[in-house]
Amino acid sequence: MIGPYRVVARLGSGGMGEVFLATSPSRRAVAVKVIREELVDDPKWRAGFRREVTSARSVSGFYTAPVVDADPDADRPWLATQYIRGVSLSTAVREKGPLPERAACRLGAGLAEALMAIHDAGIVHRDLKPSNVLLASDGPRVIDFGIARPLGAVSLGRTEIMGTPAYMSPEQALGEPVTPRSDVFALGSTLVFAATARLRSASAARCAGGSSTACRT
Question: Which residue among 42, 127, 138, 183 is the active-site one?
Answer without folding.
Answer: 127
